[in-house]
């Protein structure tokens, strides 16, 4: 799907040859996460036959149901095991309540902070040989700050007694430099493989002149200060509201998009509509010591337990995890098998207009591996 291997922040590229067994944490979470994470596990187990990779799996807990059962949405054991034993992990979905629940906080947001998963890389791509409009772009989302630092307060207006809620938006030079370089490195790799590349910086600095203004300025500084390296990458900027409009009207105009946390979240979920379903779109949470593959869909409580969830986003996320761990060849095999399933257009779940079960799709992709 991404079809790049950004070696400079690939966790295990430097020692991949010495790793004979990869330890992978499995965190199903809530809802359909429990049904799709086994797809990633089955694919990895199937790779043993061709690539000689061995995997050890550790089942881990996190999510809203875990919070209800234990009082902790992200148990300390889960974090410690990921830090000390795992090279990679797969995270399913979280069913977070829309109203405030005392003591609850999204475990995936906390996990990104705890493990330093600073980049969320979300490729959005149609498959060649289908009737779909050709789309091939990557959204690189800063993963640690913006409104997702979750500093909020509610208080009473002394004038009229009405309630006021406020949230802090944080943009730092350090995090912006890091995500800008990550996005530019991905663009550079795509330049080498595709012959052209564009980086589009998304912001709202016309209104948020200090926070989004800093994001815009620092991204530009990173590009300009390394222009000899990135000279072949075209540099653009787009205000987020017009970005949404253009993304849906002319997605073929975009290549690599970099955005602060909130905009990146919204853009990547919306972009899934361009390729047919959230059930197709993967992501990788990338940090210095671990990579966590995470499908972009949510917990989908309306279909949970029915065995009809689309496993492709998880399977592609599994391939992305391997890619960022330095194992490009098995990742490419997974991408090709998924593409073949989509191209055949026979074994597909309801979100794509079919009537196949989750396991039938998994079995078809395993057969194509």
Automatic annotation (TrEMBL):
<dbReference type="GO" id="GO:0000287">
    <property type="term" value="F:magnesium ion binding"/>
</dbReference>
<dbReference type="GO" id="GO:0005739">
    <property type="term" value="C:mitochondrion"/>
</dbReference>
<dbReference type="InterPro" id="IPR019818">
    <property type="entry name" value="IsoCit/isopropylmalate_DH_CS"/>
</dbReference>
<dbReference type="Pfam" id="PF00180">
    <property type="entry name" value="Iso_dh"/>
</dbReference>
<dbReference type="GO" id="GO:0047046">
    <property type="term" value="F:homoisocitrate dehydrogenase activity"/>
</dbReference>
<keyword id="KW-0597">Phosphoprotein</keyword>
<keyword id="KW-0028">Amino-acid biosynthesis</keyword>
<dbReference type="GO" id="GO:0006102">
    <property type="term" value="P:isocitrate metabolic process"/>
</dbReference>
<comment type="pathway">
    <text>Amino-acid biosynthesis; L-lysine biosynthesis via AAA pathway; L-alpha-aminoadipate from 2-oxoglutarate: step 4/5.</text>
</comment>
<keyword id="KW-0460">Magnesium</keyword>
<dbReference type="GO" id="GO:0019878">
    <property type="term" value="P:lysine biosynthetic process via aminoadipic acid"/>
</dbReference>
<feature type="domain" description="Isopropylmalate dehydrogenase-like">
    <location>
        <begin position="23"/>
        <end position="365"/>
    </location>
</feature>
<keyword id="KW-0479">Metal-binding</keyword>
<keyword id="KW-0560">Oxidoreductase</keyword>
<keyword id="KW-0457">Lysine biosynthesis</keyword>
<protein>
    <recommendedName>
        <fullName>homoisocitrate dehydrogenase</fullName>
        <ecNumber>1.1.1.87</ecNumber>
    </recommendedName>
</protein>
<dbReference type="GO" id="GO:0006099">
    <property type="term" value="P:tricarboxylic acid cycle"/>
</dbReference>
<dbReference type="InterPro" id="IPR024084">
    <property type="entry name" value="IsoPropMal-DH-like_dom"/>
</dbReference>
<dbReference type="GO" id="GO:0051287">
    <property type="term" value="F:NAD binding"/>
</dbReference>
<dbReference type="GO" id="GO:0004449">
    <property type="term" value="F:isocitrate dehydrogenase (NAD+) activity"/>
</dbReference>
<keyword id="KW-0520">NAD</keyword>
<comment type="similarity">
    <text>Belongs to the isocitrate and isopropylmalate dehydrogenases family.</text>
</comment>
